[in-house]
Amino acid sequence: MQRAKGQSKSPRAASAHRVAVLIPCYNEAATIAQVVGDFHAALPGAVVYVYDNNSTDGTGEAASAAGAVVVRETRQGKGHVVRRMFRDIDADVFVLVDGDATYDAASLPKLIGELAAGADMVVAARVSQDSAAYRRGHQFGNRTLTGFVAAVFGKELRDMLSGYRVMSRRFVKSFPALSTGFEIETELTVHALAQRLPTSEMRTPYFERLAGSQSKLSTYRDGLRILRMTVSLYRDERPLSFFGMFAIAFAAAGLILGGSVVVEYMETHLVLRFPTAILATGLMLLSFLSLACGLILHNVARGQREMKRLAYLAAGVDDAQRPRQATQPAAGPSYTHVR
């Protein structure tokens, strides 16, 4: 696939909306200058922030020379970097993207247009014609995890783990970032789905890494961490469903084991298999305990969702998403950064 030039086909007039392009980086000196340049070309009014996460190859210097605002974050891990970004920076539109030059900067105006139409988060679903751009292990893991989250939270998703997404201010400022590493994309997606916030996906080109650039994502190690985070979020956001599965499993095992003991007692009026009877009783008790835990935590999770919703509403309506008068032209707004 030929890489598109980083510019929009339809330039727009300047406005007061502020766009911040956030790029977490660790040893991306081979690509960061191109990424910064592409996003400056795609949206000249945006401010590009590069958060250098203990790079040893001159990433920060290359980003600064390309015109980015460089900040250093010493706590290692993408989750730590994103949490710091969301805390430090204030804007109307937040663009989160990796610094490996695999995402299409020219798609940014379209993504922002979708956000302005009412979404709180727009995910750039990766589409690649380069066989080397998207490793098979990553594709399989992404499809599996995305399918699981879609089944649990009831939303048709295509690319939950995309590192390129556009978010509103109220989404960012009400997001309780807890991740430390590459699980941050999963947490962002689950937060949006659990809170029933308007989300959208748009297909965008995905490119092969440039020569001299290496992926920091481990298929198995980071895949297991993402899976663990997904299960933890499922437990926290849907506790009744999570613990209900254990309750059903324990109850089924208890009924199977205890049923024969009950039948035997009805026929002989004797309990001849005490170990089996005790085990069946224990399994039924575990079933009731699991159900009780699910019911209690369900109420706790409901209270937490209400608090998150209040934090989301307290952030106010973004200017970039404020409904427009019918007399205004149909063309969407453009975005510049006011410092």
List keywords for this structure.
single chain; 339 residues; alpha/beta; Spore Coat Polysaccharide Biosynthesis Protein SpsA, Chain A; seven-stranded mixed sheet
What does this structure look like?
This protein has ten helices and seven strands. It has 339 residues and is of the alpha/beta class. It has a seven-stranded mixed sheet with strand order 3-2-1-4-6-5-7, sandwiched between helices. Helix 9 (239-268) packs antiparallel against helix 10 (274-314). The longest helix is centred in the C-terminal third of the chain and has 41 residues, at 274-314. The two termini are 37 Å apart.
CATH architecture of the largest domain: Alpha-Beta Complex
What is the fold-level CATH name, i.e. the topology of the largest domain?
Answer: Spore Coat Polysaccharide Biosynthesis Protein SpsA, Chain A
Strand content: 5-15%
Give the termini separation: 37 Å
How many individual helices?
10
Q: What is the mean pLDDT?
A: 84
- List low-pLDDT spans: 4-16, 323-339
Rg measurement, Å: 25 Å
Q: Largest sheet, if any? A: 7 strands, mixed
What general outline do the C-alpha atoms trace?
Answer: elongated
Percent range of helical residues: 40-55%
Q: What is the ordering of alpha helices and beta strands?
A: EHEHEHEHEHEHHEHHH
The number of E-state strands comes to 7
Question: Numbering strands along the chain, what is their spatial order in the largest sheet?
Answer: 3-2-1-4-6-5-7
- Name the structural class: alpha/beta
Write down the domain tally: 2
Q: Kindly report the oligomeric state of this protein.
A: single chain
